[in-house]
Amino acid sequence: MRIGLYPGTFDPITLGHSDIIRRACSLVDRLVIGVAINRDKGPLFSLEERSAMIEAECADISAQTGCEIVVHPFENLLIHCARDVGASVIIRGLRAVADFEYEYQMVGMNRAMDNSVETVFLMAEAQHQAIASKLVKEIARLDGDVSKFVTPAVNAALQDRLR
Questions:
Q1: Which is one Pfam family of this protein (predicted)?
Q2: What are the residue ranges of helices labelled H in 66-148?
Q3: Residue 116 annotated as catalytic
Q4: Domain ranges in the chain?
Q5: Residues 33-45: what's their mean pLDDT?
Q6: Could you tell me the pLDDT band of residue 10, with boundaries at 50, 70 and 90?
Q7: I need a labelling partner for 11 at 20 to 30 A (CA). Which of 33, 34, 79, 159 fits?
Q8: pLDDT, tens digit, for every residue of 80-99?
């Protein structure tokens, strides 16, 4: 069984994330969504809320693709998380050249720690490339319409949280 790990904070999960998840499912049998516990970022949603949103958003993707999708919170090094879940591949989404520069450094460090785990980069579809959770939250905070960037359920959760 080929296991992939797609890590992120997913605060909140966006249509860009869902696009990468759907496409990653064509590469692996089991996709572990690694939800990073990053206290420095001060997430808008708790770990439990982010995990529940991901599970809800991924249920249809799993059913449509036949890929098992598992949510796995982690707070350790990414390469350690990959080992913990048995992943042979780390999936990373790219939006822009700036993402690649950072990710390139991460791949080098991860390979130095464990060269048995490969990293695969997936570009988000063109209509999703500008979407970033940070920007979605900022637009929502300023009473902007984020319905083009998140599903209705995530939009409702954002509106509820920001009221």
A1: CTP_transf_like
A2: 78-85, 97-113, 133-141
A3: no
A4: 3-126
A5: 88
A6: very high
A7: 79
A8: 999 999 999 999 998 877 77
Helices 47-65 + 15-24 axis angle, to 10: 50
* Catalytic residue flag (residue 41): yes
Given 72, 95, 111, 161, which residue is catalytic?
95
CATH annotation of 3-126? 3.40.50.620
- Tell me, what's the pLDDT at 39? 75
pLDDT level of residue 153 (50, 70, 90 thresholds): very high
Q: Which of 41, 80, 141, 148 is catalytic?
A: 41
What are residue 118's DSSP bridge partners?
Answer: 89
**C-beta contacts of 122-129 below 8 A and 24+ residues apart:** 122/20, 122/23, 122/24, 122/91, 122/92, 122/93, 122/94, 123/93, 123/94, 123/95, 124/16, 124/19, 124/20, 124/93, 124/94, 124/95, 125/19, 128/14, 128/15, 128/16, 128/19, 129/16, 129/95, 129/96
Q: Is 41 annotated as a binding residue?
A: yes
Which residue has tokens 């069984």?
Answer: 1
